[in-house]
Amino acid sequence: MPMVDTMQKEGLDRKPSHAAQSPRKRSDTVRAFALIRRYHGGNAPFVLGFLMLGFEALTAILEPFPIAYAVDYATGERSSLRDIGMPALMANERVETVLVLGLAIILVAAINKGADSLSEVFLARGGRALGYNIRVTMYDRLQKLPMAFHDKRRTGDVLTRVTGDVLVVEEFVVASMSNIVASALLLVGSFAVLLTQSLEIALIALVVVPILALVANYFSVRLKRVSKEQRSKEGDLASTAQEMLSSIRLVQSYGRGHVDLANFSRQSDQSMRASLKIATIQAQFSFVIAVLEGLTIAAVLWLSFWLVDRGSISPGTLVLFVLLIQNMFKPSRKIVSEWYKVGKLIASTDRIEELLERQPTVQDTLLSRKAPALEGRLSFDHVTFSYHSEHEDPSNSQARTVLHDITFDAAPGEVVALIGPSGAGKSSIAQLVPRLYDPDSGTVTLDGMDVRDFTLASLRGQVSLVLQETLLLTGTVAENIAYGIDDADPVRIEEAARLAQAHEFIEQLPDGYETVLGERAATLSGGQRQRLAIARAFIRRAPVLVLDEPTTGLDPEASSQVIEALRTLIDGTTTIIISHDADLVRCADRILVLHEGRIVQEGSPQTLASTGGPYADLFARGDEGRTFGSSSRTGHEGER
Questions:
Q1: Alpha-carbon gap, residue 255 to 314, rounded angstroms
Q2: Considering the entire predicted model, what is its pTM?
Q3: What was the pLDDT predicted at 391?
């Protein structure tokens, strides 16, 4: 949809959330409807929907008039319809009048219901388009937000925002908005008719309307607060369930299911209590409105009888007043039944906006250009880097620096291994290449061009990663291998699998390359998963390759198979290897030894082994166990 593209472009131009707090001074309701206006995708469904709601309100106001006329005609207060200009249709004038009035009641009811149905159709189109636009924009934003955001956010809560909170907004537009708008129009229209019929009755309604507004506002504030609490509890509940499912092996093997169950039960109880609070407030709201309606109708009846006794109005007009007053309270009851959803809407839009207001720290600029076909000449020039919190100023000196003045070059096709203890900064260097982060100072270049000058998509399209944590998606084996390119065919997929030494075990799967892998491909061994990841890198044939602890956690046989596949993959490719595996490190042309974010030794494996120093010490310790030092975790968590 063009609307989505427009929203994404607008999102890039918006100011960061810490500088965009002024809109929060607006009322909650105004901000909620501002979000709807921003992402609605088109005016036509809403204009047509509101037009039909206008017809619905108009016909609802007209419905009491034939009834009032019939009452006056039955009591002799009014003459037949022929006396006001209707041509004779039947011989019996009385039957004719009653029949025409009955047909008028049926016709008005049919138009009313038809307008109501059409308004639902039009608003459903607008509401579903709105939900689509918000959901896709949030998904796009989540893909671009910094790692600092994803490291600190619970996945279940984020999923609840993208699915549950967006659904609340969508359902409000589809189902609740028509009730609220139609009810408001009917309320105003009924009051306007009362004003033309009797000033005394209109004054009663005029007194009641502000009371209704005050009551509604009082309960809406309570509903909004409790609804926000409920949405937060639902997010916590989803996060707890997601964490349990993602770590089910740990839960079962440690026999700690009862602890997780107790935690889930406690959070579920909190969510239930919040829901019960909403139901209680809504019931109180309905009770107050019902009492107010009874008092108002009693007052109208008393005043109407007084006017009838004085001869100011007819019995039919009395009936008309009662029906119009009921018309005023009927929409009020609808608003009561929908008002708690306004509180849920506000709570959900707050959570949606809180996510959409966040800005990527690494993003394209107007000057970014598509990267040309790269040879793979990689350079780090006096690079210094720190991990900052999501909204922290990069100039903040309190952030711990993990890389200090890093400078090195890798020629096209050269294999460079980074070794050192955990926290030395190895993975940080790897993450700067595809711009998962940007350095605080210095430059990272490819073929002599600053990587920040390229669009992210074109840069990352020429960098392949094989990580310690093998990330496979739900889908077929072929789809997982082909992930990252658009034009993969079965021949290329099989070729990549053969090069990765994965073809043999894939053929033994129930459906071969069409075998559907479950979540995280838990049915495959670690070595098999890693070889699929290597096949994915093979099919991309990117000029730059990053291997971040690809053999950690594998048994010797699986590790040997993975290394054999990697030897083929790195041939002719500029490669950065991060590993404690001695056999894999020996594949490197050059080794950089890091300590506390600085390069302390550099040279070929043979040279460094013979000259002594940190590498020789690690080599001596690692040659027995085939690893340099102790295994480390991937990612920047261990490096902070």
A1: 80
A2: 0.66
A3: 52
